[in-house]
Amino acid sequence: MTNTLTATNYTFPGQTKVYHGKVRDVYTIDDNLMVMIATDRISAFDVILPEGIPYKGQVLNQIAAFMLDATKDIVPNWKLATPDPMVTVGYKCQGFPVEMIIRGYLTGSAWREYKAGSRELCGVKLPDGMRENEKFPEPIITPTTKAAEGHDENISKEQIIAQGLVSAEDYEKMEKYTRALFAKGSQIAAEKGLILVDTKYEFGKRDGEVILIDEIHTPDSSRYFYAEGYQEKFEKGEPQKQLSKEFVRQWLIDHGFMGQAGQKVPTMDEAFVNSVSERYIELFEHITGQKFVKASTADLEERIGENVLNFLEQNEG
């Protein structure tokens, strides 16, 4: 089985903080820079699954870097460099405690709520008579709180502003950027025969400016359908062929797990783990139009440490 990176424990020069997230480990340097390492961990239903996925971290990091570069004319972002296939270094920003989720189609958790009778999502009214995977007349923004632990919670624009989580002025900017980024991401996807179904963006502030942070348009933060066959499958009520993490969630649901108390994560055998890896690589190649080049997985931790150290030494001051 291919080596995977499921944990890191570095001490870099000038390191002031480290945060181990569900998927990424973030090291803060001199309270100014952030070294974001995309590990091979995979999470679903806010639970870190027990097995790492080969090359997943590299796929996520390289798609995010590609997309941040492709959208920097739309919104300023945090990225400075990618000194390793699994690492992005960028500016530290003060993150907003909300995630901006934008949906072009009724699917996933939104469909599950709609099917159960809900006709409002995060303050957005939904029309009657919609079907699974149907395109919205216009993309809808359905924010969530960004929870330090546990589940993120749906929240409306009005609640965000009323609770002082984000100022009205900053929220308007985030909303404008979210729609522009989604339009650009949809265009890039369409050129490659894909549909960007829904995605999330995170923003922060640096020197008074609203900045795009974290990853964008990756299979961890987005859902993609294949454009070919979409309409036919939709009309027949058949599941869409998709490139996203939803198939992992569906596999877990089929095996009796939805992240609820008392439920046990099903065993992920080697065949399933490799199939997930292949799906991630497939998305990379579709969305970037580039052949995925597998970086060596020998001595992963040592390689990453050396590459980050070299970058920091070359960029001191």
Order of helices and strands: EEEEEHEEEEHEEEEHHEEEHEHHH
Count of individual beta strands? 17
Global structural class: alpha+beta
Radius of gyration: 19 Å
**What sort of overall outline do the alpha carbons produce when their principal axes are compared?**
globular
Total helices: the number is 8
Q: Termini, distance in Å?
A: 41 Å
Nearest-integer average pLDDT: 93
Largest sheet: 8 strands, antiparallel
Low-confidence stretches: none
Helix content: 25-40%
Determine the strand fraction and express it as a percent band: 25-35%
SSE layout and pairing:
Blueprint: E1 15-20, E2 24-29, E3 33-38, E4 43-44, E5 47-48, H1 56-71, E6 79-84, E7 87-91, E8 94-95, E9 98-106, H2 108-115, E10 120-121, E11 124-125, E12 134-141, E13 144-145, H3 157-162, H4 168-191, E14 194-206, E15 209-213, E16 222-226, H5 230-236, E17 242-244, H6 246-254, H7 270-288, H8 300-314
Antiparallel strand pairs: 1-2, 2-3, 3-7, 4-5, 6-7, 8-14, 9-12, 9-13, 9-14, 10-11, 14-15, 14-16, 16-17
Helix pairs in contact: 1-7
